[in-house]
Structure formats: C-alpha cells, structure tokens
Write a structure and sequence with these properties.
about 130 residues; alpha+beta; about 55% helix
C-alpha cells in the first residue's frame, strides 16, 4: 500500500480543535479530555447518533489520547485513493485512523471501552513498528 504523509495544515488543525470542543461541550468539559470523559461522550452519542462534528470530535479526542501516551503525531495520509486524518509514527508508514475507528463503531452502535481501544491501538502500532 503506497502512502503519502504530510503534516496537518492550519485549517485542518483548526477544524480538529473546533470538533473536539463541540464534542467536549456535550458533557460541559474542555479539552484535553480524559479516557472517562471520552467514554461518556461516546456513550451519549451511541445512544443517539448525533451531528458529525460531535462524532469527529470523539475521534480527535481518541487520537489526542493516543498521542499523549506515545511519540506519535497527527498527519494527513493519502492511501487507497483517499485522504484521512491519522495518527502516525514519525519516520514510518505506521498509522491508525481514530476518526474512522470511532465513526464506524458509532454508526454500528457498538459498545466500546475507549481506554481499552486506546491501549489496543497503541499496542498494535508498536507491534507493526517492531516488525519493521
């Protein structure tokens, strides 16, 4: 899979901040969000799928949680004919897609433990890094 990676531009960073703030406002919180706060928002949205900004905000919050526990960074990645905002390991092509991870699960109304999802994602990324 050929991937192209670039840093987020100013507009993309602003959009992320905006959607994260909207999601946090659902529980009267302010970023950065803890795993229990993200869980609370996720569960609220799972009960009633809401505006895309709120859903994307949960994905951004999950990404921020992952980044806060690693040396990973945000990037815009082009792969498989599309673009996505991802969290990646700098200097590699190892990445995860927290916005899509959350959106898919919310659309399917899957119960998710956010802390476990965060830790499993980090473990998977480190496994991929160690295979290189």
């Amino acid at each position: 899979m050929a991937v192209q990676i670039r840093p987020l531009n100013r507009e993309e960073i602003s959009t992320q901040s905006h959607v994260l703030g909207k999601a946090a406002s659902l529980i009267n919180a302010k970023p950065p969000l803890s795993a229990p706060q993200i869980q609370q928002i996720y569960d609220k949205l799972r009960a009633q799928y809401d505006h895309a900004d709120h859903v994307n905000g949960v994905g951004v919050a999950l990404g921020e949680l992952i980044i806060g526990r690693t040396n990973f960074e945000w990037a815009k990645i082009a792969f498989d004919g599309g673009y996505e905002t991802c969290v990646f390991a700098p200097g590699t092509q190892v990445f995860c897609t927290p916005l899509s991870m959350v959106t898919k699960r919310l659309i399917e109304r899957q119960p998710v433990n956010i802390a476990d999802l965060c830790e499993a994602t980090i473990a998977t990324m480190y496994q991929r890094l160690n295979r290189r």
